[in-house]
Design brief:
Blueprint (H helix, E strand, L loop, with lengths): L12 E2 L2 E2 H9 L9 E5 L5 H9 L3 E5 L4 H11 L4 E4 L9 H13 L6 E3 L14 E4 H10 L3 H5 L3 H5 L6 E3 L18 H18 L5 H10 L17
Parallel strand pairs: 3-4, 6-8
Antiparallel strand pairs: 1-2, 5-7, 6-7
Helix pairs in contact: 3-5
């Protein structure tokens, strides 16, 4: 809830529903996820998130506000996980089928891959349509042996910065979805305006869990919607 650019963003209203509700409802459509845990902090400002999770039947783990990596590892341990599917809480347009694709790709190559991702060193998908899949054991190893502050803030950063150590499969977007400069995540007030416009237009026709295809069709038909937040800058991990 303490986002510097858009405070309270994960419970911000998008066409009548909180951002977190929209994300969780989409993740509940995934066929390849066993469960969902929200990893938030012990800060008093995040009490409202824990309350929301309790009211909506979502597991919630609370840990360090600053050490996000340690918090995520502890959250996964609390769920007795072996494979982590990481989705950031500010991506309410996440397509469940893309998440399932990431998991299935990991499982089908499990003996020959460490990380499956569509947001690694080759960016082809719209921002906010991201999935990352890796074993909890690898994440625990990074957490226990690497003290770099940036790595502990950006959970999977170490994997991408050390391709010599990890076997990585990157899922590339089909040509029709290949718009890596388009913003579908929530970091700025303009992103919230964009989210509301997209959901307001598509939800009455496609329901609350529409995938990326109708979003891309809408943005190509009405490119002024893309311009709402195109100028917003993505913050680099370093």
């Amino acid at each position: 809830m303490g986002s510097s650019r858009l405070p309270g963003k994960v419970l911000a209203d998008v066409n009548g529903k909180p951002v977190l509700w929209r994300l969780v409802e989409r993740l509940r459509q995934c066929r390849e996820l066993d469960d969902i845990v929200v990893a938030t902090s012990t800060s008093a400002s995040d009490d409202v998130l824990a309350e929301w999770c309790g009211q909506n039947g979502v597991a919630c783990f609370r840990g360090s506000e600053d050490d996000v990596l340690e918090r995520v590892v502890a959250a996964q341990r609390s769920m007795h996980s072996d494979v982590v599917v990481e989705i950031t809480g500010d991506c309410p347009l996440t397509d469940p089928e893309i998440v399932d694709l990431g998991v299935l790709t990991f499982l089908s190559h499990r003996d020959r891959v460490d990380v499956v991702s569509n947001c690694g060193n080759t960016l082809t998908w719209p921002m906010g349509q991201y999935v990352q899949v890796f074993p909890l054991a690898l994440l625990e190893e990074v957490c226990d042996t690497v003290s770099d502050a940036a790595v502990h803030e950006h959970v999977s950063l170490y994997f991408y910065e050390h391709p010599e150590r990890y076997r990585l499969i990157e899922i590339l977007a089909p040509e029709r979805w290949r718009e890596p400069a388009w913003r579908m995540q929530l970091d700025y007030p303009e992103d919230l305006v964009f989210q509301n416009e997209v959901v307001r237009r598509l939800e009455p026709v496609h329901g609350s869990c529409f995938g990326i295809e109708p979003v891309m069709a809408l943005l190509r038909a009405e490119p002024h919607i893309v311009e709402i937040n195109r100028h917003c800058e993505e913050r680099a991990a370093r």
